[in-house]
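Sat 14:20. Reprocessing the chain from the morning session after the first attempt stalled halfway. Input below, unchanged.
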Amino acid sequence: MTRVLLTAFGPYDQWEANASWLALVRLTQQLPSQPEVTTRRYPVDFDAMRRMIARDLETAYDVALHLGQAPGSAALHLETTGLNIAGMSDERPEDFRRLVDDGPVAYRSELPLAAWAAKLRAAGVPAQVSHHAGTFLCNATLYWSHHVIAERGLSTRAGFIHVPLDVSQVVVQARELPSLPTETVVAGLQSILAELA
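Finished this time. Tokens:
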């Protein structure tokens, strides 16, 4: 049976909830019998998250699929590339640093992201392939997962999906923001898990 590690993030900054965690919790209430899914909630903290990835990938998963919140997005973004760069929104780009000093510039996901995006859209779930996961923690998750996999010679394939804010997060904001109901995100994730099974 295919074994999948499925992760999401906890709250951060102004967000009292994280759309990725809301989706993962809802998904666990209606998981299919296959594949075998293990879930984790990662803190929004570089060092803690890096340690958790290293520990979690000691288990022989077939796929490590990470979820993160993307305010401003109205679709699932299936990220192709993790960059060896880490930066915060309040830093100048020249102050960004490398995630792994002697690591490659980037890792590219081997998951069939374009096929998944097409299938999701056909099922009525807004989705698109995105060329990289930014420069913050979501990107670091994708990069570090691939780096651990490469260093240990694992057969695990890794990927990252950015999910939009849930409607419940948007209605309390003073400004208009795109959102997608958690149920729609969950439908998309169920479709992807069915492909992995």
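The CA atoms of residues 23 and 182 lie 6 Å apart.
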